[in-house]
Automatic annotation (TrEMBL):
Main enzyme class: transferase
A molecular-function term among this protein's GO annotations: damaged DNA binding
UniProt source species: Lentibacillus cibarius
Protein name: DNA polymerase IV
GO cellular component terms attached to this protein's record: cytosol
InterPro entries named among the record's database cross-references: DNA/RNA_pol_sf, DNA_pol_Y-fam_lit_finger_sf, DNA_pol_Y-fam_little_finger, DNA_polymerase-Y, IMS_HHH_1, Rev_trsase/Diguanyl_cyclase, UmuC
Protein EC: 2.7.7.7
Classification of source organism: Bacteria, Bacillati, Bacillota, Bacilli, Bacillales
């Protein structure tokens, strides 16, 4: 592979080590790297997930981010911390502000709340080489926030991310150039590489592709025939090539749809799901109205409990765009009535409003119902909630045991704020 024609940039991929656990440790005056601390989504539920475990807890007891609260050993040295998502978001924002002291905002590309790409091209005269910039950022984050981070350095985003995952989490800082791909990346199994999940791993393994090196030498034509554009990306990534932009506005500019879902804390019957569905439709339509959008395609996804297994995912289009809660709810109930098996308990519900149109307020009126009145009611309720809080006005069903709106209002990303 001749890399002469491919761009070379100075890209850092920065990952905060056990971020949630580190923030909670610092709040308690503990060392994030030595304290045994677990961040639990809901300490009142034994089955709640461990959202983060400190490095020491992972090493001593093998606790991971998919462990459950009840699986934590009875060790008096373990600190149990309830999740506080608002705190983690606040620290993440402050870390981004720190990075902004090194580079302009268009050079910062947040990947998640605890991971970010930073393009550090042209900083040699100010801060030194990209290695020196990485070391300086790592030191500043530790000194200002008490949090240890791992930093991968690459000629592009892919190389920076992969070398961070494979090497920097052990070494602190690690780098990979185009010329290092053969030695540093090719020996690794494909499942160790960012962007290759379990399903893709199984597909590649069936084709005799075990390592990244084997993927790099596999037929490009066969990969694209089998996986389409994803096969093309796999091939170029195996050679360390990534042409994704490294500067610019990385925020999503075009909204394709509005969706809202929930993993229920217990099994719901078919009657209870109707209440939950109404709360979800209310939130989706509120977001659509806020964006002055209305949609013509309504989607409902239902997952049954583990004892039942299965579920369904169906969509239906309507003649005129809507952002009315009850319009969306009635279509969801129609889909539920048609495709629900009638007996299974339900554990996950998801609703989406898609095929969006601008909501100018001059949509065709119906001769048989008060369309304008329904629209006005929705916007009035939105204004009340915006002024007095998300629970200032709710439907009566939201106050029943099956309602989810009140509980969700105190959470960020499904976890306690």
């Amino acid at each position: 592979m001749d890399y002469a024609n491919y761009p070379r940039n100075d890209i850092l991929c920065i990952d905060m080590r056990s971020f949630y656990a580190s923030v909670e440790a610092v709040k308690r005056g503990l060392d994030p790297m030595t304290a045994q601390l677990a961040v639990v989504g809901d300490v009142n539920r034994p089955g709640s997930i461990v959202l983060a475990a400190s490095p020491a807890l992972k090493k001593k007891h093998g606790i991971s981010n998919v462990s459950r609260f009840f699986e934590l050993p009875n060790d008096p040295d373990i600190v149990i911390a309830p999740a506080h998502m608002a705190d983690y978001l606040e620290v993440s924002i402050e870390i981004t502000k720190l990075l902004n002291q090194y580079v302009p905002k268009e050079a910062i590309h947040p990947y998640s709340v605890d991971e970010v790409w930073v393009t550090v091209n042209g900083l040699e005269k100010l801060f030194g080489s990209r290695w020196q910039v990485a070391a300086s950022i790592k030191r500043d984050i530790l000194e200002n926030f008490g949090i240890t981070c791992s930093i991968g350095i690459g000629d592009n985003k892919f190389l920076a991310k992969v070398v961070m995952d494979l090497y920097a989490k052990k070494e602190g800082i690690a780098a990979c150039t185009y010329e290092d791909v053969r030695e540093k990346l090719w020996p690794h199994p494909v499942q160790d590489i960012w962007g290759i999940g379990r399903r893709m791993q199984r597909n590649l393994n069936r084709m005799g592709i075990i390592t990244l090196g084997q993927l790099a030498h596999f037929s490009f034509k066969q990969l694209t025939k089998r996986f389409g554009i994803m096969g093309e990306q796999l091939y170029w990534h195996a050679w360390g090539v990534d042409l994704s932009p490294v500067l610019g506005n990385f925020t999503k500019t075009e909204q394709k749809g509005f969706g809202h879902g929930i993993s229920l804390l217990r099994d719901y019957s078919n009657d209870e799901v109707a209440v939950c569905m109404l709360d979800l439709c209310e939130e989706v339509c509120r977001r659509a109205r806020t964006a002055n959008k209305a949609g013509r395609t309504i989607h409902l996804g239902i997952t049954y409990s583990k004892t039942s297994g299965g579920g369904f995912s169906r969509s239906r289009s309507i003649p005129l765009p809507t952002n009315s809660t009850m319009d969306m709810y009635h279509v969801c109930m129609e889909l539920f009535g048609e495709f629900y098996d009638g007996t299974s308990d339900i554990r996950h519900v998801y609703v989406t409003l898609g095929n969006l149109h601008d909501d100018y307020g001059d949509a065709q009126l119906s001769l048989f119902e008060d369309t304008a009145g329904k629209k006005a009611i929705g916007y009035v309720m939105d204004n009340i909630r915006a002024t007095y809080g998300s629970t200032a006005i709710l439907r009566a069903t939201s106050y029943t045991k099956a309602g989810v709106a009140i509980d969700r209002s105190a959470k960020i990303g499904g976890h306690q704020a």
